[in-house]
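Request: Could I get any protein with tokenized structure?
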Amino acid sequence: MKRLILVLMLLASPLMAVQPDEVLDDPVLEQRAREISAGLRCLVCRNESIDESNAELARDLRLLVRERLVAGDTDEEAVAFIVDRYGEYVLLRPKTTGANLLLWLAGPIMLLIAAIMGWSFLRGRARSAETAETDALSEEEQERLRRILED
């Protein structure tokens, strides 16, 4: 019995959160709405699309997308309307332009800087080890050090 419940729960998990009263009569518009909704982030659930989220705000966003499509907007215009209203954070895949480009490149740039600093640190240690060997004590200094330590 437990296995049956587990299987049913696993089968139910990929279902979308779109309610029957949200579905458009035109299957072409509904398909476009689903594609747009899959690319928009739920502002409550963070890394879920509004198509997968059960949050009330996600439902409002799904309805807003459908309203825009019924009003005659293209997919890009509907997404632009939502981005203008909620900001670029609402996109699951943000654009790599402007200030976002700096955020996209910050990780690799920091990794490169860290690699250069690590390499220069290791080179400095190797050089200091070489100079330590050449700065060894002479026989006379070793004898003096031995006498000091004996006292």
Q: What stands out?
A: Residues 118 and 124 are 10 Å apart (CA to CA).
